[in-house]
Amino acid sequence: MTQDELKGLVGQAALQHVVPGEIIGVGTGSTVNRFIDALATIKDRLPGAVSSSNASTERLQALGIRVFDANEVGELAVYIDGADEIDRRGFMIKGGGAALTREKIVAAQAKRFVCIADESKLVDALGRYPVPVEVIPMATQRLVRQFAALGGTAKVRLIDGVPLVTDNGQHILDVAGLRITDPPGFESEVNQWAGVVSVGVFARQKAAVCLLGTAGGVRTLAF
Ligand code: 5RP
Question: d(Cα 178, Cα 181) in Å, to the nearest integer?
Answer without folding.
Answer: 9
